[in-house]
Amino acid sequence: MALLPTACSSDDDALTFFFAANPEEADARLRVVDAFQRRHPDIKVRTLLSGPDALQHVSIYCAGGKCPDVLMAWEFTYAGLAERGVLLDLNTMLAHDKTFAAELAADSVASMYETFTYNGGQYAFPEQWSGTFLYYNKKLFAEAGVRPPPGRWDQPWSFGEFLDAARVLTKRDRSGRVSQWGFVDTWVPYYSALMFGMNNGVPWSDPRMNPTHLNFDDAAFIQGIQFYADLNNKYRVAPTASESQSMSQTDLFTSGHAAMALGGHWRYQTLERAPDLDFDITVLPTGPKGHAAQSNIGTTGLAIASSSPRKKQAWEFVKFATGPVGQAVIAETGLFVPALRSAVGSPDFAKAHSRIGNMAVLTGGPAHAEGLPVTPAWPKIVALMDRNIGPVLRGSQPATSLTYGLTPKVDEVLRTP
Amino acid sequence: MGVAQRAFKPNVLRGVVLYATLTVIATCALFPILWAMSGSLKTAGEVTMPTLFPAHPQWSNYRDVFAVMPFWRMFFNSVLYAGCVSIGQVFFCSLAGYAFARLRFRGRDTLFVLYLGTLMVPLTVTVIPQFILMRVAGLTDTPWAMIVPGLFGSAFGTYLMRQFFRTLPDELEEAAILDGCSPWQIYWRILLPHAKPAVMVLAVLTWVNVWNDFLWPLLMIQRSSIATLTLGLVRMQGEYTARWPVLMAASILILLPLLLVYAVAQRAFIRGIAVTGLGG
Amino acid sequence: MTPIDATATAVARRRGPSGRRARAGRIFVAPNLTAVAVFMLFPLGFSLYMSFHDWDMFSPAKFVGLANYRSLFAEDPLFSIALRNTVVYTVGTVLPTVLISLAVAGVLNRKIKGIAIFRTIIFLPLAVSSVVMAVVWQFVFNTNNGLLNIILGWIGIDPIPWLVDPKYAMASLCIVSVWRSVPFATVILLAAMQGVPENLYEAARLDGAGELRQFVSITVPLIRSAVSFVVVISIIHAFQAFDLVYVLTGRNGGPETATYVLGIMLFQHAFAFLEFGYASALAWVMFAILLVLTVVQLRLGRRRAAQEERSWA
User: What pTM does this model have?
Assistant: First the structure.
């Protein structure tokens, strides 16, 4: 299970492929890499697994002069690298490869493809839809007699219904300690809080690309954030940071101690391997001001370093992984929800997810998703959010404090280039 | 109650109090490590309970560490870097220390004071330009980046050796000079063999410093094949958040080599500190 | 200092033994001095140069004069937070460290049976890396089932959210830092204490002074320079703290800004935001502060020593 380099140390002509993955996901990734190497035996690939903060690693590696050839790119964080010229404009490669360009154009989902279009250049091709939804434990729902949640994005359920289910599903033992949580969050808390804000009818920002304002001062948005924070502090259906120190929230769900878990497809591999876990997926709840259930256009893609000495080989790899061939492999291994329509609709994809009943949550995700802001100043925004949303999530400040506290700071960062 | 009895009682009481205090202090020094050992032998579920001891020791956690990180490779790397830099430091610092202590040349003392002055320069100021230096030299993500910066001695080490050489008697050198030995021969054959305590201190301090270094490997190392144990542990912490048993097992395993080095070198190290007058 | 060559060659002759020794001397120190020039002096100058520029390492550098410094002092609210946190951390580490190590060294400074074992054990944390200890202490500080809260539970105190609540995070950091620094300081102080002549204690005992009195009036004053050394080194070390903070409470100096110290701020601006010019300015400000602190420290030490000598005269 250890992610050792696929070649030995003296392999300086190998293609370096940088990506982030939890250990279970990493396994599936390697299978895709193997599939590539079987088709291109002349190209050696050396994988580089990221630590917890991928953007920081990429920044350090590229600033140090040894940028990995192929880089996993995230919708949040690629813009800063694109702007600094670290990433290659893939349009230049597409210009020489009209067949592939045509394939991509026909099969891509526009919203995901355009996520990686920055200032007219194309800096990555999407490889997956990584938006968030809810996993739920079918057995715990059945035991508690709670009606299973909806299985499609166009059948929303409300904050209230979600809360009621969570309350019934939160159980305490005799000493008052919680033995089963109604809801856990396997993503980053402040991102999830913003998802709830988004599901109350307000997008994170408008426009999506290079916004000058994030909607932290919108009352409906704040209401969603407050609802999320109240899950921990007021309604006590979700663990606080203290309570999830001893066992991660993902582990709480896999061990059957939580009924619902917010996460994206990146958790699927871990959950699938959990023994005795009977789970399915459902949509995020919709707030009173929201119109429909929304996920985020979460997407990761593959980019090529502009300083790479192996652009041709990198291009082969990127073409493979984001083109029809690689995406079909991805569908079959169940690694991601593929970005190409043909792969998502393929029977292999369904077979890889045979334990899931509500496939429409995955397949219908991109169509029912709202974009997240794309701006080069994202690292600073994250630092600000961490500092200001933290007290809200701990319950020591109301979400309305974000209006006068966070909003002006964020807007200032967004306005200065 | 005669004088003899009175003299006896306070001594026993004093002894008990003393040993008790020593035990308390020793426990304070050890308890995090003991707690880590306890955690490393628990199951994932047990770890969430506020108990002191595991019900059934899970030695498999230790085995899992080797499956999860390339432990031996990283161990080898740590030894390589620490060893090379320690040898380099001992050699170059003792050489320069001898020169500053015994060989006269123009500007020697001013040079020494200036050299010592660089001790004032904090790491934070030099780390970014050193990063750039490595980038320009193309040494990022190579073992050389871990070895070269510290290889050619340091102000602190030179100061240590110089102080020590000054405490050695002149007769040692004078006899050799009369015999016609060159400065190099004097250094290599006579002074260095006598310098064991100081060499010990320098070697141990350098070894521990390089082994435990975190910021520089964080900035320089990408591939796990050249990563150190320290960096490996932090990467593992990121991947295995809140999976305490295996994380604690890894921590214990990473602690052990240094504890061994320390146990072996401790006596000589402490003596060296006294001899080099480090404590003024 | 024995001028070995003074007897033989009164006249400065470049050839001959003194010339050879001088040349050897220069050659012997050359590698060290070259290394220091390359890895310390050049970086010092270059980082000053960078501090007057805006540079992200990928685009060309842009000269901005004193803008970085102005921004640091006047506009960046985080700088004062980081400075305050660093001062709190430094005082919260150095003060307890010195006091505790004095006491521990005093207890260890005896020739009773088994003292060697105790010394070995108490010096053990010396060998352990900040990183490993931070990972282990995270486990100790666990709110619901960490060792500290278990022990507190025995005496009836509710679990404290050590690493989660901003109020306690800095205290947690200081606890680990003190735990880590005490062995090193104890080693130095113990070595110094062992240099105190025995007859002073005997004289005091004959005068009827108890152990504590002997310790305070004899031991402590006589190891003053060692204490000074420990204080200076500890301050310099604590001021630049990074490893411990990064691993124990995360790279953002969290929770919120509770453990946001200058070292973390530097790393964040340089390697997360790619603002190398700004980070260099920050580094130079830290350097300046440390320099002033150290010089003041040395001056005070020298003045005190001079005063003492006068009082004994």
Answer: 0.89
